[in-house]
Known about the structure:
Layout: E1 18-28, E2 31-41, E3 48-49, H1 52-70, H2 75-85, H3 89-96, H4 102-108, H5 115-126, H6 130-138, H7 144-148, E4 155-156, H8 165-169, E5 179-183, E6 196-198
Antiparallel strand pairs: 1-2, 2-3, 4-5, 5-6
Amino acid sequence: MNDQNDVTACPECGKPVRRIRGSRAIAIGRRTVNVDGEYRYCDACGETVYTLEEATELQRQVATQIREQLGLLMPEAITEIREDLGLSKAAFERLLGVGPKTVTRWERGTVFQNRATDTLLRLIANVPGTAEFLAALHGVKLPQKAHNQMSFQRTFGPSMYFDGAAAYAGVAMATGPSRTIHDTGPPERGRPPSSAVWS
C-alpha cells in the first residue's frame, strides 16, 4: 500500500502500474466483503497499490459492510451518543476505556467497533446510570447537562440503537409493543441502577 497522492510505479519492483476501477473481495478475519473503488495494479509482480485517499475510502466501505453484517452501530449513532453526553472524543475514549483516536476512527467510519464495545455503547444510550458508573470508574467528569437533559432512547424495541440488535446478538426477540424501563429510584453513588420496572 502506498500513501502518495499519485502512484505510477510499483513500490515492490519499480515497474509501471495501471489504474483499475472495479470490485474487489477483501478478507477481514473470517469474513469477506466486496468493495468498489479505484486502485493500481502491477502486472509484473501482482502488487496492488493504493493512494492514501483510495485506501481511506476502501476502509470506509469495508467497515460499513462489516457493521451492516453484524448489526453494529453506525458512525452517526456513536457521534450522537457522545454528543448527548457532552463529551469530547478524548473524554469519551476514557469513559469507554479504549485507546487514543479510536472514537475518531469510529466516527469517520474507517474502523468498526467490536461487539463488546458496541454492547457497551448501547447500554450507555439506553440504560440510565451506565454513563455515570463508567465516569466514576474511569475518572471522567460528565457535564451537568448529561445528567439533566439526556435524550437517549430507553426502549427495548425498534429504535436507532437497537435496530438489528437481535441478529447481531443471535437472539430471537418477540414482536409486539416496545418495552420501556422506568427507573425505580436514583442509583447508589458510583453504581448503576440495579432495579427497574417493565411496562
